[in-house]
Design brief:
By secondary structure, the chain is of the alpha+beta class. It has helices at about 5-15, 20-35, 85-90; strands at about 40-45, 50-55, 60, 70, 75-80.
């Protein structure tokens, strides 16, 4: 399912227009992103939790040329599946 399919499903199940459903989904995603940028963890019960992990820089190697390259430090989103979803998928 992609974002547009999620919007359509939300609109259909709740008798909303696609525009109203789109605003709801966009607001939800924007709030999640803002919370993660602030360094907070986002937990959705029954689904899982999102957090940002910091990764230190390191010396890597270009696999094509074999030349050493410096990889800058970075932050990446991390998702941990919740217990309920894990159990639901493994029925």
């Amino acid at each position: 399912m992609n974002k547009s399919e999620l919007i359509k499903a939300l609109a259909d199940e709740n008798e909303l227009s696609n525009e109203e459903a789109s605003v709801i989904v966009e607001t939800f995603f924007d709030c999640m992103k803002a919370s993660l940028v602030e360094g907070n963890r986002v937990e959705i019960r029954g689904l899982g939790s999102f957090k940002i992990k910091d990764y230190a820089g390191y010396a890597g190697r270009n696999p094509k040329t074999g030349k050493m390259v410096e990889v800058a430090p970075k932050k990446l989103p991390f998702f941990r599946v919740g217990k309920e979803l894990k159990e639901f998928l493994n029925k």
